[in-house]
């Protein structure tokens, strides 16, 4: 008996068709610094621009989208998940003030369906194009027997550059700084295991229409992660630190960009309807909501008070609602979250009550 690669579950011709379908979208992200086209073993970037830096630091990040892909698969909608990937990866390097130079992606699937793979990559490419970042390479791997025919996962990595003396972070944060909140577009890409469990326990299908949301719960949950790259880079020269609010919620992430001895006091804010829907449906305690979901804030900027309003105006002009959410104070030793995710940072205290929750 002769066994072919196709009989083993891998369709190389489908992989080739997927590449053909995605090529034009990927090529649109390539500016003059990209050397060569799509399909090489390695992507090449002309890095001559780095010669203008006095002491360039490279910044890198890698991430995925998590179990949000399960919703995309259930609804057979695959062209939005790519923006989630770009947001999760690129906006992590922007936190240190780095300008993204390139991004790469990796898709593992049980079976290559060319149109589906092309949709995923098109979403990644469109998001990369919107932040002027070349999608320089990628890989689609077919894993029959490991993943189901309609299952896939996505991951990506990005590299950026920042001048050594322009790196943002805890060392720059000062007492008296203001904290500017930038609104999220929804749940983004974190906490979906909790969200999916709440829906499962209550028997909600993703096609269920929710009046408070004005659309189905599935449509709401697939809203792509807002990209903060452009606006953060625009205001980086006025910022002391940024905080990307991802897994762990606002307080745990904010503590990572504060120095010991300082405390961020943040006034609780008006929470978008999707979070109330999840909270009420699942009876989820506030502590779990705060420690899992972004609750409506996707990025924070910490900066001197005199620049606060100008940064808010810049965000609003870019279509991102923003407001002053709090201040940086001397740590009074009172109750607060101090340090998180392996970082012995400053403290974060949330005050007041959420509106809309």
UniProtKB/TrEMBL annotation:
UniProt-listed InterPro entries: PurM-like_C_dom, PurM-like_C_sf, PurM-like_N, PurM-like_N_sf, PurM_cligase
Pathway noted in the entry: Purine metabolism; IMP biosynthesis via de novo pathway; 5-amino-1-(5-phospho-D-ribosyl)imidazole from N(2)-formyl-N(1)-(5-phospho-D-ribosyl)glycinamide: step 2/2
Positions of the PurM-like C-terminal domain: 174-334
Highest taxon listed in the record's lineage: Bacteria
Principal EC category: ligase
GO MF annotations, alphabetized: ATP binding; phosphoribosylamine-glycine ligase activity; phosphoribosylformylglycinamidine cyclo-ligase activity
One GO CC term on file: cytosol
EC id: 6.3.3.1
Domain PurM-like N-terminal: 54-162
Keywords from the named record: ATP-binding, Cytoplasm, Ligase, Nucleotide-binding, Purine biosynthesis
Catalytic activity of the protein: 2-formamido-N(1)-(5-O-phospho-beta-D-ribosyl)acetamidine + ATP = 5-amino-1-(5-phospho-beta-D-ribosyl)imidazole + ADP + phosphate + H(+)
A UniProt-annotated Pfam family: AIRS_C
Subcellular location: Cytoplasm
GO biological process: 'de novo' IMP biosynthetic process; adenine biosynthetic process
Family statement drawn from the similarity comment of this UniProt entry: Belongs to the AIR synthase family.
NCBIfam families the UniProt entry points to: purM (TIGR00878)
Protein name: Phosphoribosylformylglycinamidine cyclo-ligase
Highest classification ranks of the organism: Bacteria, Bacillati, Actinomycetota, Actinomycetes, Actinomycetales
